[in-house]
């Protein structure tokens, strides 16, 4: 029943076909009684929602967990779900970043991440649909964390990001963007040797497990740290020639 509710919620305000719910619960081997069992789950969910909201089961069926042709729809209003609030805060934070307002971006993106209380869908047995959404949510969280760390570094919060980045790189051993941010933070904190060790750890993980070398962004940053070149809070490398090397999150490296 929990999986049915989760599937409906990650598709809130959309009709979820009965076939999709059956596939989520039983994959390609549904029992003969699958349709009856699914209908029982929906009935029990409506009873739970009625108890939680003080509405009658009939009201819940017409206003919240609604039967539609070929499937079911979970109706929400704005602000009902944390994920909707998360995406709104992220949009606000990105607009602040685009306008150069780092202080507002820091506050807004931090508020978005505070809505997380652990891994997405951690207490739900996930089939194909929920596993895909779980990965989508986790990737979205990582992207926002990268935005936030970039903002903190621009604001000079070098020490504040170290603990978070240590945990993130340990949990994501192949994520070059997070490792590059951690290398920058370590170097800006005067911990050059640790920044170089971190690159080697990333390289070993990529080569041994994926057969890949680190990309241009991480390699350029490594070379600059190795040569003790100056790196500013935006991640730009200042060479003795006066050239400025800008590194984008996509891995592109440009010399100005």
Radius of gyration: 24 Å
Beginning-to-end CA distance, first to last residue: 58 Å
Q: What's the main sheet like?
A: 4 strands, antiparallel
Q: Residue ranges: pLDDT <50 for 5 or more in a row? A: 239-256
Summarize the structure in words.
The longest helix is centred in the middle third of the chain and has 27 residues, at 128-154. This protein has 11 helices and 7 strands. Residues 239-256 have low confidence and may be disordered. It has helices at 2-10, 18-26, 34-53, 57-63, 82-98, 102-114, 128-154, 162-171, 176-188, 192-210, 216-226; strands at residues 15-17, 65-68, 71-74, 230-231, 237-238, 244-247, 253-255. The protein is of the alpha+beta class. The chain has a 4-stranded antiparallel β-sheet. Helices cover 61% and strands 9% of the residues.
Summary keywords:
single chain; 256 residues; alpha+beta; four-stranded antiparallel β-sheet; three-stranded antiparallel β-sheet; WH-like_DNA-bd_sf
What is the structure about, briefly put?
By secondary structure, this protein is α+β, with helices and mostly antiparallel strands. The protein is 61% helix and 9% strand.
Secondary-structure topology with pairs:
Elements lengths: L1 H9 L4 E3 H9 L7 H20 L3 H7 L1 E4 L2 E4 L7 H17 L3 H13 L13 H27 L7 H10 L4 H13 L3 H19 L5 H11 L3 E2 L5 E2 L5 E4 L5 E3 L1
Organism: Streptomyces violaceus
Family: Belongs to the AfsR/DnrI/RedD regulatory family.
Pfam families: BTAD, Trans_reg_C
